[in-house]
Amino acid sequence: MTMGKLVITGGTSGIGLATVECFKQNGWDVINISRGLCAVDGVLNIQVDLSQKDSEIVLKAELLPRLKIPDITVLVHNAAHLRKDSLDTIDAISFRDVLEVGIVAPSLLNQVILPHMAAGSAIIYLGSTLSEKAVAGAFSYVVSKHATAGLMRATCQDLGDRQIHTACICPGFTDTPMLMAHLNHDQGIIEAIKGMNAQNRLIEPQEIAEVIYFAATHPVVNGALIHANLGQLER
Fold this sequence. Notes:
- The chain is of the alpha/beta class.
- It is about 40% helix and about 15% strand.
- The chain contains seven helices and seven strands.
- Strands 3-2-1-4-5-6-7 form a seven-stranded parallel beta sheet, sandwiched between helices.
- The N and C termini lie far apart (about 50 Å).
- The mean pLDDT is about 95.
């Protein structure tokens, strides 16, 4: 039996792919929105670059015909860019690109999908440990993830009594291709990062997917920013 419909951005790898698999295993239909294709059987792929200004036109043309009115829908804003940049080196084009994917595209998607969402639906944002703190050398990512937390909180207030709930899931260091690329696959750095939480390991993408699924299917979790980081240690 189909439980409902998951619409997710960036469902091709890492946490996004694990989330697709989790929802599929629980009987949900899945639509993936990304530049690449999700290889999970039965997933409908809509290929679009969310950083481009015409993405809204593409989404309306490709996505709307595939949505029922109303439907139990979970919208997961997962797509993001993690770049090595800083306050004094970032250029405007790159900064806009990060914010288009992380902040503008989710807002546009909300507007496209909300009219099709029945009571019991959910909008889930993917934040980060860096939604509430900062590190050097990841300027645009930190700014974007702080904004994601604010976007979720504003979403909660504007949804009012529509019975559509929202949350921001904030993973710690998770074993994803994006993180590995950011670390240049340097095993020494990876081992050091493992020591920055209470369990001395990286988080598995499936663990975050399960937190996303819980938040999406439990309306009591509304307006919440949830850290899932194995007890990150501050040093």
